[in-house]
Specification:
23% of the residues lie in helices and 29% in strands. By secondary structure, the protein is of the alpha+beta class. It is elongated and about 60 Å long.
Length: 102
């Protein structure tokens, strides 16, 4: 076990072809934005800094000011390339239900 004044967290960023994980030891009370900054991933992946910081902890979207707890996994989210609803509509239009099969 570690000191009660520090926590251990992981910060991850994933691209289709590559994933980066950084393990950090932070002071108790550190937040998501601090963890991302300390991870150095923005220097390695400049796209992280092109828009507002969007992150999740174990898949749950959180604010950059969210306080971290021991063992958290901070996931840096990428912007959506396409609107999921619009993509589903386009797919349905290309492949309508009930179309006769040959």
């Amino acid at each position: 076990m570690g000191s009660p004044d520090v926590i251990r967290v992981r910060v991850v960023y994933a691209l289709p072809e590559r994933q980066a994980t950084v393990e950090l030891v932070l002071e108790q009370g550190a937040n998501v934005a601090e963890a991302v900054a300390k991870s150095g991933l923005a220097a390695e992946f400049p796209a992280i800094s092109t828009g507002p910081l969007q992150c999740a902890i174990f898949g749950r979207v959180v604010s950059p000011t969210e306080a971290l707890r021991e063992g958290d996994r901070v996931e840096i989210l990428r912007p959506l390339i396409a609107d999921p609803k619009q993509s589903r509509r386009q797919a349905a239009a290309r492949n309508p239900i009930g179309r006769a099969r040959k």
